[in-house]
Amino acid sequence: MARAFGKVILNGEHAVVYGVPALACGLQRGVSALATRSESAELLFDGKAVEAESDTKRAFDAVRSLVGSGAYRVDVSVDMPCGVGLGASAAIGVAVTRALLDAEGARPSSAELLEIVSHWERVFHGNPSGVDAATAALGGCVRFVKGQGVTRLRLGSRLQLAIAVAGPPSSTLEMVSQVRAFRERNREQFERSLEAIRTLVQNAELCLEAGDLSGFGRLMDYNQMLLSAWFLSTPAIEDCCRLAREAGALGAKLTGAGGGGCVVALAGEDGPEPILRAWTAAGFQCFESDVVDSQPGPAPAGQLTEQSP
Ligand code: MEV
Questions:
Q1: According to the model, what pLDDT value does residue 283 have?
Q2: pLDDT tens sequence across 270-289
Q3: Does ligand 1 come within 6 angstroms of the Cβ of 172?
Q4: Distance CA 84, CA 102 (A)
């Protein structure tokens, strides 16, 4: 069974599209896929075949042609919310590609795997930075730079995350275009914010490695303010962030494309339960996730580098 992780971006979404590093984590929830030989190529979600004229089928065909695989039935099972900024489409792309490669007995490097998955991602998101797919493939906590690859971070202490679906679902493609339009209208302000996020991410990485969770939480809050200034926040996102902080979160922010989708909060010493209780009482769907450090699939190579101990 091939697996891939859902993801949350802890700092740097959108800025990552313009070359700023992003910090992201694999979730315990994710996607699994199994490829078995068949008369014709088929992709099924929980036993139901995808429609012939769908983006998912187009993405599947793109990946199949690159893997050069024979005809397989690929059964996919998704154990995470979809369309809400948790990288479900990248995780499905990684799991399906891994399933086909496994079935063919191929052992590509992670960089080769991600090159194939980028064709899946482009069907849905135009020209994504690649942070979602890299995190879906690697899990753990990573630093990603567009065009340069991904480095696994060593955490100074365990990260306990709480995630709320603030909703509604939002389109990454549309939100990325919205930010691009904002940048065209406000060049100077945009460049200043980008530099602020670059500095913030640098400091956030140091906090993570030193186990300074309070410092890291404050930087999540600061990142949320900068993302709000790009009109990516919503009243529901702001409510979720406030409720989380009132319930003891060290920091909270939107995660992913914004304009809806999810909020991620870093739990303090009381753990995620008080945050989850506050969100549930306010009617938000939510769950917790520890940062998983296991690593499925092929070892990183090429563009993917592990940080030395
Ligand atoms: C989406 O999960 C992350 C964005 O930064 C888009 C991207 O990196 O391609 C909004």
A1: 98
A2: 999 999 999 999 999 999 99
A3: yes
A4: 29
Percent of the chain with pLDDT over 90: 88
As given in the structure block, the two tokens for residue 163 are 């995630």
Ligand 1 close to Cβ of residue 232 (< 6 A): no
Residue nearest to atom 9 of ligand 1 (CA): 128
Q: How many CA atoms lie within 13 A of 195 on its CB side?
A: 5
268 CA distance to ligand 1 centroid (A)?
27
Q: Which residue shows structure tokens 């580098």?
A: 305
Report d(CA 21, CA 10) in Å as an integer: 11
Smallest CA separation from ligand 1 atom 1, residue: 256
pLDDT range class, residue 69, cuts 50, 70, 90: confident
Residue 127: its pLDDT value, please? 84
Residue nearest atom 8 in ligand 1 by C-alpha distance: 129
Q: Give residue 162 CA to ligand 1 midpoint distance, Å.
A: 20
The two tokens of residue 135 are 């995190």
Q: Is the CB of 255 under 6 A from ligand 1?
A: no
Q: pLDDT by residue (tens digit) across 6-64?
A: 999 999 999 999 999 999 999 989 999 999 999 999 999 999 999 999 999 999 999 99
Q: How far apart are the first and last CA of the chain?
A: 30
